[in-house]
Amino acid sequence: MPGVRLWQSVWRRVGPVACLAVCAGFWTCPKAAAQPPTALQHTTIVLDAAHGGEDLGAALGSVPGAEAAAPEKVVTLALSQRLRALLTARGFAVVETRQGDVAMDEDARATASNRVRAEACLVLHATNAGSGVHLFVSSLAPMPTQLLMPWKTAQAAQVTNSLKLGNAIHAALSAAGRDGDLALTIPTTLGRTTLPGIDSMSCPAVAVELAPLRDKDGKVTSEVTDADYQTRVLNALAAALLEWRSEAGAA
Ligand SMILES: [Zn+2]
Q: What residues pair up with 207 in beta bridges, in sequence order?
């Protein structure tokens, strides 16, 4: 591709020093600077557990606000750690934006993600509202990769890939309920919205928000803290990322 060849030529001349200089400020370097992945390379996945520190996120559970309710920050970190184990067992290299109960602003999360030039970034949230899994992709309009991408809208160059990744995850979650038992169905939606952290990420990125499972009357049948429910969702995410990696390797 001419665009890639042009960038590779520029990259050889200006080198990573110039790139690091701009990446530290209001610009970010395009994903094309990374070596194309091969089937033999580890694919790096970024897991961004939302909230942390004083930012508790939502109070999750049947009785929000009760002492037994789990803070969202605890659930997202647990999801990140469990998914990391599943992905490393499948040969992925995994980077977590936070590994403990620490506060991180959106720029720090994007910086951590962009530094490793990941093949996919998943931002993990949880909620009491709705049912199943809510997937969100940035609402930025797609634009071609430029030599330097403005920091606040870097995701625009990846938003088409992010939609593909979102569709791959949607398909994997839908397949997780196709074993003849309707009670195992995981309702999944895919939407677009403004996502300040993701909008600065230069990787294909999807926000994954886990909601409880509900019966037809709206009664909760599985809380977001339910280990079996989490396992089914996380296995589907891992399957989607395996598919994503195989497609990248074949490209
Ligand atoms: Zn959240």
A: 123, 136
